[in-house]
Amino acid sequence: MIIRTLGAGDAEAYRALMLEAYGAYPQAFTSSVAERAAMPLSWWEKRVSSPLDCLLGAFEGDELAGIVGLAFEPREKARHKVTLFGMYVTEAHQRKGLGRQLVEAALDEARRHPRLKLIQLTVTAGNDAAFALYQRCGFIQYGLEPLAVRVGVDYFDKIHLWRELKGQ
Ligand SMILES: CC(C)(COP(=O)(O)OP(=O)(O)OC[C@H]1O[C@@H](n2cnc3c(N)ncnc32)[C@H](O)[C@@H]1OP(=O)(O)O)[C@@H](O)C(=O)NCCC(=O)NCCS
């Protein structure tokens, strides 16, 4: 398994993986599968090439088995912050330490940018696997956003987490 930054040539695989994730885990992501399936391939190509995003994929051969994204802040006063988003490991590869490796790779990537001081993310309340993973990687809860997402007729809170980039 290797973890590397996605490039324009990975847009189709990225699209397929994220549509699978949105469909299989609707409560875990704010984007819906219908919303994203409607986007043309050019939208995904832009996403993987954007200077404001960095997407890290875990590949077993040609197969994209997991993904995590970093979103940088364009505004001057917020440029010390980065947001981790779009974390997903396919079912066949879960519980083998890949999620942990992807979070660590995202932390390493963030540390390569000296201006960055902190990393933040949100996780849907009740997503115990992801919450435990982030806590293991040093993230600390600082807030709870009530009724953050609506999936069908149900509303879910989002837990807000952060950690400093220096240290382990
Ligand atoms: C959350 C997710 C990325 C974890 O990926 P993974 O590769 O299975 O995680 P790892 O094997 O690296 O596990 C690392 C730690 O996470 C926690 N964890 C992972 N899966 C877990 C589960 N099903 N139940 C409880 N804890 C779990 C554990 O603390 C684990 O450490 P341990 O194995 O030493 O106990 C994966 O389950 C997934 O893609 N879920 C669906 C999408 C999702 O929820 N994305 C997150 C959006 S915020």
> Could you tell me the number of beta strands?
7
Distance between the termini: 23 Å
Task: Write out the strand line-up for the largest beta sheet, numbering strands in chain order.
Answer: 1-2-3-4-5-7-6
Integer-rounded radius of gyration: 15 Å
Name given to the CATH homologous superfamily = Gcn5-related N-acetyltransferase (GNAT)
CATH class: Alpha Beta
In the CATH scheme, what's the topology name?
Aminopeptidase
Beta content comes to 35-45%
Structural class: alpha+beta
Number of individual domains: 1
Description:
With 168 residues, the protein is α+β, with helices and mostly antiparallel strands. The chain has one domain (2-164): Aminopeptidase, CATH 3.40.630.30. The protein is built from five helices and seven strands, in the order E-H-H-H-E-E-E-H-E-H-E-E. The chain has helices at residues 11-24, 33-37, 41-49, 98-111, 128-136; strands at residues 2-5, 53-60, 63-72, 81-89, 118-124, 140-151, 154-164. It has a seven-stranded mixed sheet with strand order 1-2-3-4-5-7-6, with helices on both faces. Helix 1 crosses helix 3 (41-49). The longest helix has 14 residues, at 11-24. The protein starts with a strand and ends with a strand. The mean pLDDT is 97. Bound molecules: coenzyme A (COA). Residues 21, 25, 28, 87-89, 94-100, 123, 127-130, 132-133, 136 line the site of coenzyme A (COA).
